[in-house]
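Entry:
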Amino acid sequence: MTKQAVLLSDRAKGKPLPAGSLNYVDCSSNMTRFTSNVKNQAISTLLKVPVLGKQLNRIASGKAASSGTNRPFDLSCKSDYTSYESLTDYTYYGRHLPSADQEWLDNLPPIEKVAELFKRKKDANNNEEQTMCIKSTMLFPTFAQHLIDSFIDTVYHYDDDGNVVFDWKRTETPHDIGLLTLYGKTIPETKQLRKQSETSGEKGKLKSQLVNGEEWAPFLYDSNGKVKEEFNKLPVPQGIDGKMYAARPQVRAKLKESIFAFGGSRTNLTPNISAWNTLLLREHNRIAGLIEEENPTWDDERVFQTARNCTLVIYLRLVIEEYINHITAYGVDFEIEPEKWMWDAPWYKRNWISAEFAVLYRWHAVIPSLMKWGKNTHTTMDYLFSNNLLLSDDGMKGNLRDCFHNICDHRATNMQLHNSEGGFMVGRDKSALEMSRSCKLRSFSEYCGYLGTPAPESFADITQDKDLQKELKDVYGEVKNVEFWTGLIAKDHSCEAIMSAELTKFVANDAFNQALTHPLLSEHVFNATVGEKVFSKVGYALCCEVPSIADILQRNSEGGADFDKTKPLITMTDPEYEIPLCTVTKQILHVIFVVILAIAAAALLQ
């Protein structure tokens, strides 16, 4: 297949999809779509009503946060039964449901056989076919990947060949969204990422360098490919010294030239993630400058910690107000509103990441086979650890705004089976299955019951695709044997929902829980009385604004407010996306509304 990426801007030129690409087709009937649209349009309209909308926003947020059982969990991956240690040892993932029976686990099909369900099918010319999402740009998976790496951290070590070996039940996360990608996981890591300067104009800032006149993180490695001494506490990029590059030492050496000194072991994995982390670095340093200007007597430590508080809250708001809003089908903006309704809620508990959450956030199907960076188009394997694509003359020339325009000009692929790239990405799906089995997660059917959705009684209850029904039956035999991870991805979903109802519930549950129960949004921290002490006056004002990635990019990239309107918008949602039958639904609802008003008016006149 000729290397050609799928760009949104190509539509304006009348170009069809490249060879090997299909548009996602919703298998739902028109009546099902219409019913769903009526429900979603009604919710969307009501959420926009003053006062009433605010109350509904709280109800909807609370409902999303309380799917399943509220924390603290009674079980963890430490043992199959409850003990004092299992209730207090946060180095193990928690769990929503008890361990699966060993007999059921032993009878599951081989992982290699299950992995074939995730692999993209091939056309008559032996080229992989990818199905495109009709809603999401690549900014969506970019944010999703960065988010999980910001607080999920499975324990791992390296074998003698430099390959990563995971201890799937264990975690080194602090369990709260802490932007580990930007600030590191430990205090020694954080200190190495900071300038730690008392010089005026430098207080509280993270280390950076100028590349082509723009601010980027410093490089991790020296000219000899060794980690610089000033960064010897930082994690080595996960996998860069493994078998994948063992036979190509020159490729590895070239990659190391542009690896940034970041907090997370996976933050350099793709140019997308590096670009997003760079934008957050610039935002932190910008906020630190504002705080120092407002409080010139504060020392470096206080300015840094205060700027970090502000950046974290802005990030938490983006999680709900841009990322989750893109995932939901309501077409309206949910907002973070830290008040007593939240602080007194039964789900408002200390965070403890579950094994289910760590497994389900492996959305490899949404990554297209190809992405264009600058003048050239690259496969997934081509651009792993390739930050040079952001900086070189053949790439994006160090222009961060162009990097984001490029990310948003690419369509994500659809979240479904048979849509993971057949090499590297299917390997990651195998890892998800390994973790699921290691943590003894129960069947998809049992998790449906846990979430309050109908448990499938046949393969047709999972998907309307008859060919896929047959494949699932061939692999699993009975519907009760379908695994948690496989079922979440196999389940049909509407165009506007991006993912299955069960996966959406799990994502919303953990996202709202993780964001809203964050210590920085707690009752005695985020309030008008102490807010200006915690965040500074200028910082608290920033935290109270509704943020957007576009706004953050605008104030932290070359050109100021002069966005190039000829380029794609900075958005997770395709600007031309429209919910199927949405126009018809609106027209019908409008007629119904007018009729109701007419009847009410007639009744009043009698």
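The longest strand covers residues 130-137.
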